[in-house]
Design a protein that fits this description.
The protein has 383 residues and is α/β, with parallel strands linked by helices. It contains 11 helices and 17 strands. The protein has a 7-stranded mixed beta sheet with strand order 7-6-5-8-11-16-17, sandwiched between helices. Helix 2 (73-95) runs parallel beside helix 4. The longest helix is centred in the middle third of the chain and has 31 residues, at 150-180. The protein is globular and about 70 Å long. It starts with 13 loop residues before the first strand and ends with a helix. Bound molecules: 5-S-methyl-1-O-phosphono-5-thio-D-ribulose (MRU). The site of 5-S-methyl-1-O-phosphono-5-thio-D-ribulose (MRU) has 17 residues, from helix 2 and strand 10. 5-S-methyl-1-O-phosphono-5-thio-D-ribulose binds at residues 71-74, 129, 194, 196, 200-201, 206, 233, 272-274, 284-285, 350.
């Protein structure tokens, strides 16, 4: 377990109105690099306000992650990569190494020490989503190279951070296409949990990427969105995203999922993932396990959509995944409201693990993995 923390703390950086830039109307700009500043839509304020957080330091990025201005596994990977690019810029400036003259040995050592501290600071933010340490590792491969000068490292890290962003967009589109091939029927009704949409990624979504692609082929698609207690990512974010896209969405409370399944009103479940282990166990937002048990009971296919950067083949099974425990205030109330007795003891695990036996297939940008996942995920790893 890691120390608990709550949403709604200090903002990482300044709040600003929607920035101008590429993308255009209608595009959700979850996290972007703009001239050396990481700009994120503030997900704590949605759907009531569309405001942006500007992070000029890696510490501000870390704060935005802890307080969930940015959230969702792939988006955390993108943010962490960009946070490290900010750290590299700052370390170069602080070392005062004149890039024209080249850095001395002391400068290089200080530069690396600063990047080590930033890596640890970003790693310590949230423990469950694998995309975050994955992105930090990608950056570490660059800053530990001794054949690059600090100035070259900065340039390489910025370019890798942009690549992680672009790759995520492309991966989500591919996931959408693979997933759409699995969803048959004239009028599918997909139940989803939490938000695995544009807001949780660089901008297209994993589970909602599948839903977007299905909708393009089958406009009669309907979506049931679990509200997702305690932070209401389904009610606040998934409903907002799908309504913007004109995709038919109905919001239900988490404990209604069984009712709709028992009435034959759900044809498929599609969810995202925070970490997938070698045997196909899936950590995702708390409540996903319950949905998977219900889906199995009712014979409804249960699909997990995630980029391969969510797959942690170093862990053999889900019991090894660190589960984040967050502040009790997220359960006793929301924002300024508190509905539980003062002083009540609270448990607040943010994720649970769905066993591989409940997962019909795992949809990645490299293809669809079916059981047994020990084999199919390894095959995709080398593809
Ligand atoms: O606590 P959150 O909002 O970061 O949790 C997010 C989820 O559980 C998502 O389903 C998961 O990260 C997949 S996002 C494509």
């Amino acid at each position: 377990m890691v120390p608990s923390r709550g949403a709604g703390g200090a903002a990482g950086g300044d709040r600003v109105a929607a920035p101008a830039g590429p993308g255009g109307a209608g595009v959700i700009r979850t996290v972007e690099w703009q001239d050396g500043v990481v700009v994120m839509i503030d997900q704590r304020r949605l759907p009531l306000e569309e405001v942006y957080v500007r992070c000029e330091t890696w510490e501000e990025v870390a704060d935005a992650i802890c307080t969930m201005a940015v959230r969702g596994a792939p988006a955390l990977g993108v943010a962490a990569g960009m946070g490290m690019a900010l750290a590299a810029r700052a370390a170069l400036r602080a070392g005062a190494a004149d890039p024209a003259q080249g850095a001395g040995a002391g400068d290089v050592a200080r530069f690396r020490t600063a990047l080590q501290a930033a890596t640890k600071g970003l790693f310590d933010t949230r423990p469950t989503a694998y995309n975050l340490p994955w992105a930090l590792k990608e950056m570490e491969r660059i800053w530990t190279r001794d054949d690059f000068s600090p100035a070259e490292i900065v340039a390489q890290m910025e370019s890798r951070a942009m690549q992680i962003y672009e790759d995520d967009l492309a991966s989500c589109r591919a996931i959408g296409e693979y997933g759409a091939g699995l969803i048959q029927g004239e009028q599918p009704v997909i139940l989803t949990h939490c938000n695995a949409g544009a807001l949780a990624t660089a901008g297209y979504g994993t589970a909602l990427g599948v839903i977007r692609s299905v909708h393009a082929r089958t406009p009669r698609l309907r979506v049931l969105a679990d509200e997702t207690r305690p932070l209401l990512q389904g009610a606040r974010l998934t409903a907002w995203e799908l309504m913007r896209e004109g995709i038919s969405v109905e919001l239900i409370t988490d404990n209604m999922a069984g009712y709709f399944m028992s009435q034959g009103l759900v044809t498929h479940v599609v969810v995202g993932a925070d970490r997938i282990t070698a045997n196909g166990d899936v950590a995702n937002k708390v409540g996903t396990y319950t949905v998977s048990v219900l889906a199995r009971e009712h014979g409804i296919p249960f699909y997990v959509a995630a980029p391969f950067s969510t797959v942690d083949l170093s862990l053999s099974e889900g019991s090894a995944i660190p589960i984040e425990e967050r502040a009790g205030s997220e359960v006793t109330g929301y924002g300024e409201s508190c509905w539980a007795p003062v002083g009540v003891r609270v448990r607040n695990p943010a994720f649970d693990v769905t066993p591989a036996r409940n997962v019909t297939a795992i949809i990645t940008e490299r293809g669809v993995a079916f059981p047994p996942y020990e084999e199919s995920l390894r095959t995709l790893e080398v593809s």
